[in-house]
Amino acid sequence: MSERLRAHTSRFVAGLALLALLVGVAACGGGGGIEGGGSTEVSTVEAESKPSGELTISNWPLYIDKQTIPDFEKATGVKVKYIEDINSPEEYFNKMQPLLAKGESGGRSLMMLPDYTVAKMHELGYVQALDKAAMPDVEKNLIKSLRHPSFDPERSYTVPWASGMTGLIVNKELAPEIHSICDLFESRYKGKVEFLNEARETVPLVMKCEGVDPETATEADWMKAIDKIKAAAQSGQIRRFTGNEYVQDLLNGNVAAVIGWSGDGVQLELEDPKLEWRMPTEGCMFWSENAVIPVGAPNPTAAEAFMNYVYDPQHQAQLTETINVVSPVEGVRPIIEKKGSDSANLKLIFPSSSFTKNCSSIPILKGEEEQNILQAFDSVLNE
Fold it and tell me: What is the model's pTM?
């Protein structure tokens, strides 16, 4: 998710200029494949009884609140170095891969990355299996819908950090009729729609509007959808491919609708009542960022202690209110509700199963198929 300004938000109103951020898809352009050799053997974290020392975390910008780190430090005595250095998964992986291939982590003990990146890292032997006994709150409080993803069915090496939905953000005055991804291709909206520059979210949504299930799609299905997107780009139907830059275009009235993220939708609806995040009639793409402990992590004990800490619903509540994404932790909503926060009633933060029933997970692409699909999509972006 290139340039994932997904963490968007508590600073949204105070600083819209910052919204060239990085929710998972920005300027890098769709993102090439992840390559690199490595061992397929996976080591397992051997957690010590008590966390101590220093912990270095890599995450996306604006993807945490102000209190979680100092509160964790006070509770455990662990000193945290929190680095906001992930702007796109591909860029980050390419930077870290030479170290990971040698069994080193660049001093980092936790990295927050999307499903498809951590799946590739696991294949290459770059992440460690978790000591679940050291994270009882994770085992107890992880929401049911995230317990058994296809890429890590037993959550043996990943802990979800945050999740969200990719769908439509619509200007209700300019495009009240847009409810389907297919509506974005209608001629009356020529030059007034924007698509994400992330292949793994944009292309599957187009496939869904054509009746294709992204989770079982063939390479030919992907290429057909990319051809449809290419034709729309060449004709001027699509104004441009963006990351979070679409936020300003929506606020300025430059576009009628975009493919966009639910976290941005929360803030945009507050900022301008004309704007609304909509669940596409064919369903959304549901994504997660995951915490992983890389090979060579200098303090895996503290890393697991940190994840266990944020899976306490009380601690998670203050985090969820800040970053405005779907929390992976059970029991958060009643806490926020008790505080009288409007966030408790937002379906984009606490979506029901009926609301997301037609949503699909981000597909995990591999090998030659991955290279072919990403190259084809990048060629559209670079025309």
Answer: 0.82
